[in-house]
Amino acid sequence: MSITEEEKQFLLDDIESAVVNECLGDDEKIYDAFADIHNKLKDGQKLYQFEIEMVANFLTGLCDCPEFFSEEETLMRRELAKKIME
């Protein structure tokens, strides 16, 4: 996964916000998984393929909530989800 520092920070902020605000659903294990992904990204560690897919799905899911995000943020999420899956 090759992303810029700006994209990395955007992603870290999104993940942290989702974990802190409990926006990931009812399964407690998902919060642990995303906290682990957040820490790996922050520390520059490589993510496993299933973690990359989780992040891409997470970003795409946020795109389905345009009432909460600007058009610019939604476009950035779509592009970032596509980029990390390459």
What does this 3D model show about the protein?
The structure is a single chain. By secondary structure, the chain is an all-alpha fold. Helix content is 71%, strand content 0%. It has four helices and no strands. It is globular. The relative contact order is 0.16. The model has no long low-confidence stretch (mean pLDDT 86).
The share of residues in extended strands comes to: under 5%
Helix content: over 70%
Q: In this structure, how is the largest beta sheet organized?
A: none
Give unreliable regions as ranges.
Answer: none
Order of helices and strands: HHHH
Give the rounded overall mean pLDDT. Answer: 86
| Overall SS class | mainly alpha
Query: Rough shape?
Result: globular
In whole angstroms, how far apart are the ends?
Answer: 7 Å
CA-based gyration radius: 12 Å
Number of helices: 4
Kindly state the number of beta strands. Answer: 0
